[in-house]
Amino acid sequence: MPVSDLFKPLTLLHGPAMRNRFMMAPLTNQQSGADGIASEFDHDWIAQLAQGGYALIQTCATTVEAGGIAFARQLGIHDDDHLLGLAQMAAAIRAGGGLSAVQLHHAGHRANPRLGGIPSPASGATLPGVRALATEQVERIRDSFIAAARRAELAGFDGVAVHGAFGWILSEFMSPYLNDRKDKYGGSVENRARLTIEVIEGIRRACGPDFQVGWRLSVERYGLRLEELREIAAEIMARELIDYLDLALWDSAQVVEEGAFIGKHMLSVFTSLPRHGVRLGAAGKIMGAQRAAQLLEEGCDFVLIGRAGILKRDFPLQVMANPWYDSPPLPVTAGYLRRGGLSERFITHMRGWPAFVLPDSV
Questions:
Q1: Within a domain: residue 258?
Q2: Which one, of 138, 161, 128, lies nearest residue 58 by Cα?
Q3: In sequence order, what DSSP letters do the residues of 83-111 get, joined into one string?
Q4: Which residue ranges does the record assign to the NADH:flavin oxidoreductase/NADH oxidase N-terminal domain (predicted)?
């Protein structure tokens, strides 16, 4: 497909349409206040993105419970004290012409005790000496996701994106390796998907008819089974529970290495499903205009921009101006990121990514 197709509008099942096919991926940046309140650095980052031409901008992973924290200086939405800062972020995105979503996150067994996190595993076998969540505790976390979505709506966001990837709590419950429960949240595929579906259904009931719900899904590691995830995604799309599915791939071109779909492109496993009005997009090393356009050819409705958006906050505008645009090669210097407007806190976080920031001595 031509690059110009990336700038065609895209309707969603609920609420306003995306003005083009570029979505800003949810990017951990560790630059909020220690209490989870949005900082001046969060506001500056969002303000830059808001002027960058994106159709929809997601926040970083945002905690639905204080005990679900994974990262230092993680943005929060688990308390009404967070509302003012979040409202300012939503207003900035709206002023720039884009749609907005808070990514709702709970770290589950990966919660960090050094930051006040309370490790909350699905299974008693996951962490030595840590009991599995009781059924009532699972239901409390479910309700915390729903309450956080309601706060996002009150703050003026167009929707939320439910984080079901990377072994965080919803992903963890999906995994037969990490979930050996005997209650209604364990055992069968249906039971292991129950928490995710109850969260999404609850958000639909609690929020208005135009409120948008996305779901981020990863398919690698943590004992996840591709065949099962495809089955769950098919059900969620058939029921039109979500507006968009965000496939969090490490590489959007990767090939399945084992199982029933061996040899197929990972993306095709999901793009071949009936979508029933749900939109599908993918992340994963989308660094230039031609690759973004190619993903539409491969069946995506939109693309999620991550690394390329850190390097150039206005990636969609760069593509609009130049259909052959490619991101600067990695790694880059801290000075390059600094001159581009990235905060020192964000740069420090990016130093932890492989081959992204050159050592200062270079």
A1: yes
A2: 161
A3: HHHHHHHHHHHHHTT-EEEEEEE--GGG-
A4: 5-319
Counting the structural domains of the chain, the total is: 1
Following CA atoms 10, 12, 16, 22 in sequence, which dihedral angle do they give, to the nearest 10 degrees?
A: -40
CATH number, domain with residue 106: 3.20.20.70
Using a 10 angstrom Cβ sphere, with 0-12 exposed, 13-18 middle and 19 or more buried, the burial of residue 308 is buried
R_g of the chain computed on alpha carbons = 19
- Name the residue type at position 235: E
Joined tokens for residue 328: 């600067």
Residues in Cβ contact with 61 at an 8 Å cutoff, skipping those fewer than 6 apart: 26, 28, 70, 71, 74, 75, 103, 105, 163, 168
Which residues does 134 contact at the CB level (< 8 Å), separation at least 6? none
**Host domain of residue 104:** 3-328
Give backbone dihedrals phi and psi of 328, rounded to 5 degrees, phi first: -55, 145
Dist CA 182 CA 244 (whole Å): 31
In this structure, how many other beta carbons lie within 10 angstroms of the beta carbon of residue 209? 7
Q: Which residues of the chain have pLDDT under 50?
A: 362
Q: Residue 342: inside a domain, yes or no? A: no
